[in-house]
Amino acid sequence: MRFLKKYFFSIAVLLVAFITGGIAYPNLTQEVPIHWNIQEADLFVVKSLAIIIVPILMMLLLGTIILSKKIKSTESTNKMTFNVLNGMMIVLLMLHGFILAQGLQFELNSNLVTGVIVGITIILLANPMQKTKPNAVYGLRTPWTLRNETVWKKSNRFAAKLLMLVGVIILGLSFVVPNHMPSIILILLLFSLLIAVITSYKFSRNLHH
Description:
Helices cover 72% and strands 6% of the residues. The chain is mainly alpha-helical. Strands 1-2 form a two-stranded antiparallel sheet. It is flat and about 65 Å long.
């Protein structure tokens, strides 16, 4: 019971993915697209595989988190991990819904959907960065943030706010210029990463001077 309560949200999302896949299965086309290039779908799988690909990814993600919890960690790290897990489960559910919609032959712009999913993913992953403590996996990890906890806190708070802004911009532009989203996403992410790293270095220099 404790396990179910602890992972209730993630398990519920996983069940929703399986149930929606089962409901959609009879009406899916025999082959369903699961990957798209800039113009059109370029990878198809049989529908029996299409309905379980994302749920399997969800199970792998959940299993990885459960196994990682066996390693001793702080309460704040635990909370951050659950926030990231729940956010990623929501994103995967959205991806699952898009794949099913394609198999049901709904007319959807893949670039628009990509922009929406990426934008939401960035927002969900960036938000917990504001309160995370130095760790080996998550956050803005640079030589100077790992050497000093004050630099880590300032850098990750700045990077989190910057990435959330980028996520909102990507989300908005997805509805305005959907066909250009792959290039826009790449440029914005690289630009924000560069700004975050430079700002982090400045925090470190200011602290030591």
